[in-house]
Amino acid sequence: MNIMLVSVTERTREIGVRKALGATRGAILFQFLIEALVLCVMGGILGVLAGVGGSMAITRFAEWDTAISPQSIFMALAFSAGIGLFFGLWPAQRAAKLNPIDALRYE
Hints:
By secondary structure, this protein is an all-alpha fold. The chain has one domain (2-105). Helix content is 83%, strand content 0%. It has helices at residues 2-10, 12-20, 25-62, 70-96, 100-105. The longest helix has 38 residues, at 25-62. The mean pLDDT is 89.
């Protein structure tokens, strides 16, 4: 959520230009929600890769039998996507509600 808030703050002028050129509130909301979703899913993929790598390392070096179920991978990615949507919603709404004139004046 903090990353998305910083993204909205840093791109206030861009949002103002887009709104001044006719971008709808929904289009800006969609842009920031997709950005939050992609960011969190990429983090989820990295986490799954780290987990699979750790599991393989334990199997190889400690000689323990480990198993990774496809359901756990799916649940991890779905949870990551849910976090991205939930915590990306407020910054996206904040960006969508910006007044174009105030956003263009922002320094």
